[in-house]
Design brief:
By secondary structure, this protein is an alpha/beta fold. The chain has 20 helices and eleven strands. The protein binds pyridoxal-5'-phosphate (PLP).
C-alpha cells in the first residue's frame, strides 16, 4: 500500500470507489482542445507518417509471407462493420447512442489482435535497420523481397528478439520474428492463456513462463535481453516504435469511414471505446485518431475493475508511479490482455491529455458481452476485447456528471475497438460462449 493513500483519496475522492473495485465512469475534465495540447505531446505527425511509409515499403514482403494479406495488397488491416443487432441488445428500445460499429482488429491477419499493428511494426523496423546496416538492403527504395533471401535469413538467425507479454503482444512479436527467421523469446506473465503459449512454441518461439504478473515478465525479459548484444528487446512499457505502429490506425480508419460515407464533424461526433492494458495500443490508436479527427473524436478507455492502471495513473498524475496493487486491488482479471497493474508512462502522458474518459468493468460482464456479440452478430471476440462494450452501455444511460449531453451522444457514430479474438481455439471459444453450445 502507498503510505499516503489516505491523502491521495482526499484529493481524488474517486480513488475510494476504484480501490473498492466498483465500476466507475470517469470524465477527463482536465482535457483541453486538441490544438492546445498537440504541441506538448512527445510524438508528432511525422512519427505517424514515418511508420505509415515503412509499412508501405514492407507491403510487398508481407504479401508473400502471409498470403491472406494479398486482397489488402500486403497491408495488415481489419474491417469496420455496423452491428445493429448488438446495439439493440445493449441499449434496448431506447435509441440512446446513434449507430454502433465494431473495428475488427480481433480479425487482423496473422495474429488476430490489435498487437499486430504495433508488434509487427517494431519487428519490421528492427529487421530493416539490420538489413540496411549489413548491406542486404541498399536503401529504402530497394526490393524488400531481398529480406527473404538466404543471406537475410542467416543474418536474422543470429539475432534474437525478446518481449514481455500477457499473451497477444508475444504472439504478434513471436509470429513475425519467426517468419523473418529471427530467434524469438517471449516472457509470459502468469495471466497468459495456455493456448497462446502452445501456439508460439509450435511456431518455433521460446516461451519463458513467470509466476508473477506482466510487470515482472517485462522486467526480467528486459534484463536478460540487455545482457546479450545480439538481442533486441521490445519494451511495451516505453517503446515509441510500438506506439507509432499503432498510431497508423488513425489514417486507416479515416479512409474506411470516408469509403462508407460516414461523416465526422462537429455535428456528427465520433465515439471510440478502446480496452486498455499497459496503454501502448490504446495510446497509439488514440493519438492517430486525434490527428485525424481532432476534437470531433471522443475517446473512452475501458479497464477491468481489478486492474485500472491507466485510470489510476492519469487521475493521480502519478502515471507509472502508482499500481493497482498499491491501492489494494489484485491486478487479476479474466481479461488477460488487460491484466496490467502499472501503466506505461509514455502512453499515459499522451492519453491523459486526449481522452474524454475512462470506464471500468467488472469481470462478470465480460463473457456475457462476448456471448451477446456472438449471438447477435456472429462475431467472436475474446473477453479482453468484449470489455469495450461496457463503454457504449454506460454512455447510453444518462450520468449526472457527464459533460456530454444525451442528445450529443445520440448524434454520434460509436465504434467499439475489438482488440482480439480470431485465433482463440474452438474449445476455448466454447467455454466462453458456454450457454450457446450447439450454435457453434
Ligand atoms: C494488449 C491488449 C489490449 C490492450 O493493449 P495495451 O497496449 O496493453 O494497453 C486490449 N485488448 C487485447 C485483446 C489485448 O491483447
Amino acid at each position: 500500500m502507498l503510505m499516503d493513500f489516505q491523502s491521495l483519496i482526499s484529493s481524488h475522492p474517486i480513488l475510494q470507489s476504484i480501490a473498492d473495485a466498483e465500476e466507475v465512469v470517469w470524465y477527463n475534465t482536465a482535457h483541453k482542445p486538441y490544438e492546445i495540447c498537440r504541441g506538448a505531446l512527445p510524438v508528432s505527425s511525422a512519427n505517424i507518417q514515418d511508420a505509415s511509409d515503412r509499412l508501405k515499403r514492407f507491403a510487398p514482403l508481407i504479401r508473400v509471407l502471409f498470403p491472406e494479406t494479398v486482397p489488402a495488397q500486403g497491408l495488415i488491416e481489419s474491417p469496420l462493420r455496423e452491428i445493429p443487432n448488438m446495439k439493440a441488445l445493449l441499449c434496448g428500445a431506447a435509441d440512446a447512442i446513434g449507430r454502433l460499429y465494431i473495428k475488427m482488429d480481433s480479425h487482423l491477419p496473422v495474429s488476430g489482435s490489435v498487437k499486430a499493428r504495433g508488434g509487427f511494426y517494431e519487428v519490421l523496423k528492427h529487421a530493416e535497420e539490420l538489413a540496411l546496416a549489413n548491406g542486404i538492403l541498399r536503401d529504402e527504395q530497394d526490393d524488400y523481397l531481398k529480406l527473404l533471401s538466404e543471406s537475410a535469413k542467416s543474418l536474422f538467425s543470429t539475432h534474437k528478439i525478446q518481449v514481455g507479454s500477457t499473451g497477444n503482444l508475444g504472439l504478434s512479436i513471436g509470429l513475425m520474428s519467426r517468419a523473418l527467421g529471427f530467434q524469438a523469446i517471449v516472457h509470459m506473465s502468469a495471466d497468459a492463456k495456455q493456448w497462446k503459449k502452445d501456439l508460439l512454441r509450435s511456431r518455433g518461439s521460446e516461451v519463458v513462463e513467470y509466476e508473477g504478473d506482466y510487470g515482472a515478465a517485462v522486467q526480467t525479459g528486459r534484463i536478460l535481453s540487455d545482457q546479450d548484444p545480439t538481442s533486441y528487446f521490445i519494451d511495451d512499457e516505453n517503446s515509441l516504435d510500438l506506439f507509432c505502429g499503432y498510431s497508423v490506425a488513425g489514417e486507416r480508419l479515416a479512409s474506411q469511414l470516408s469509403e462508407m460515407k460516414i461523416l465526422v464533424d462537429e455535428a456528427n461526433p465520433l465515439f471510440v471505446y478502446i480496452p486498455c492494458g499497459v496503454g501502448g495500443a490504446p495510446g497509439g490508436v488514440s493519438y492517430g485518431l486525434k490527428e485525424q479527427f481532432g476534437d470531433n473524436v471522443h475517446i473512452f478507455l475501458i479497464e477491468p475493475t481489478q486492474a485500472p492502471c491507466m485510470l489510476l495513473g492519469i487521475e493521480t498524475n502519478l502515471l507509472n508511479k502508482i499500481s493497482a496493487q498499491d491501492i489494494g486491488l489484485t491486478g487479476k482479471t479474466e481479461a488477460d490482455g488487460l491484466a496490467v497493474g502499472r501503466c506505461s508512462s509514455l502512453a499515459g502522458s499522451v492519453l491523459g491529455k486526449i481522452i474524454d474518459g475512462e470506464i471500468t468493468v467488472a469481470d462478470n460482464r465480460l463473457h456475457s458481452y462476448s456471448r451477446m456479440l456472438f449471438e447477435s452478430e456472429h462475431i467472436f471476440i475474446e473477453p479482453s476485447a468484449a470489455a469495450a462494450f461496457h463503454g457504449p452501455a454506460e454512455l447510453a444511460s444518462a450520468h449526472s456528471n457527464s459533460p456530454l449531453s444525451a442528445e450529443f451522444i445520440k448524434k454520434g457514430t460509436h465504434i467499439v475497438w475489438a482488440t482480439g479474438g480470431n485465433l482463440v481455439p474452438h474449445e476455448v471459444r466454447s467455454d466462453i460462449l458456454k450457454s450457446e453450445e450447439g450454435h457453434l
